[in-house]
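#help-structures
NK: newbie question, is this the right format to request a structure? protein is NADH-quinone oxidoreductase subunit M
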Amino acid sequence: MLGTYYTFPELLLWIPLLTGIILFFIKNSKVVKTVALLSSLLTLGVSVTSLFYSDIAHHPEYFNYSNVSYVWMPYIGSSFSVGLDGMGFLLTFLTAFTFPLIFAATHKREYANTNVYYGLMLLTQAGITGVFVATDALVFYFFWELALIPMYFLCSRWGGEFRIRVTFKFFVYTFVSSLLMLIGVIYVYLHTPPVSTLSDHSFYLRSFYNATLTRGEQNGLFWLFFLAFAVKMPIFPFHSWQPDLYEQSSNSSVMVLSGIMVKMGIFGMLRWLLPIFPDAVGSYQTLVIIFCVIGILYGSSIAFVQSDLKRIVAWSSIAHIGLMGAAVFSANNTSLQGVMLEMFNHGINIIALWIVVDIIEKKTGIRKISELGGLAIKSPALSIFFLIIVLANIALPLTNGFASEFLMFTGLFEYNKYLAAFACLSIIISAAYMLNMMQKVFFGVPNTFTENVGAITMSQKFILSIIVLTIVILGIYPGPLLHLTQGSVTEILQKFK
């Protein structure tokens, strides 16, 4: 049946999509939370199973398990085509792995209109997954927008006092840049070869790779696509929506935004930008890397002077995304392998930080560092978990962050050693603000805000144990993920060169 009646990408899409729609009609909040968690676990089960069928190079029969195309709009050359390659397997697994963690970590959090909240969360999961599996440009754009719409409502309806204002800014940034990308998609489509006799052009991914574009056309179209991806990540100077939105949104929404949704921008660059516009990438890659390095140092420096836990994590994320952007445009095997690995590692590590911030905020009611202290005495288990997570974020050896950042810095050094040297300064700055945050929040004497803080629950220990175990395993042995994505890296470099 598998590969004949249903495929892995279809299941990864339809399970959260249909469950999310069903949740809108369930009023009991406990049932809603349980169904959402079970749906995410079922999706995770499908994703894990798909990994056992990912070696298509040695088992061609697995291709039909992970790729499917349905007739959609044949007269304009568009089909509902979805599929998984190494990068797709990695990012759909990241999405499927993190949603159960997010639901479990925030299970006791109460929301107004719980059914709507969790329904929108699952629709967001479906939209993000659709971006990662689309092999048709029109389908890709459809899911790109689908992921934005529920996230807009999640951030604007549940969050802080200024949530509507900052969410509107986020929507304007992403929607306008997406429209620019749509213009670019249509232009490239008009320069693609047909794949059937029913249409003169095609939206199929391979047709976009084979589009006949002059160097001048590539140079203009590059920016239409780049802006959409750069805003979503975000890369400096298109980042201004991010810190405020992260601060004002609910913690579970922020986990999805920072841990998974930003990967859509990086994925877009790897899947669409580099292979379609190789000449333009060669022309602008140094300029883009300079902006990324500025973003790395700027984000790290701003994080160093923040006093709010959420804003520190937000600015830290900007610095990490800047490094991934620089590694993408270094465009060599080492840097791209580092990016592939870091997309997964950053997703795990940043969500782990948000979970700890959520626990602290729930227990104390505050996020200001100067008003915290002594939590290691009151909750030693939380302090141990947080220390390991902090060490992973500053890329200490034997943590998952080390392997991916080492590869990215090495690849950047291969491209330009001077830009790499400037980027390496962020290692010192990030270690300073992360360890400073650890010291001020967890050490010292408990005060009036932290005196009554108790130990974390067994469920919280279980969730954080899964994350820490993942951090350590991938820090010691990242080989399986590197092997999984090597084929995607090779294909990207063949198109780029």
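mod (FA): yep, format's fine, and the tokens are attached above. The longest helix spans residues 333-364.
NK: thank you!
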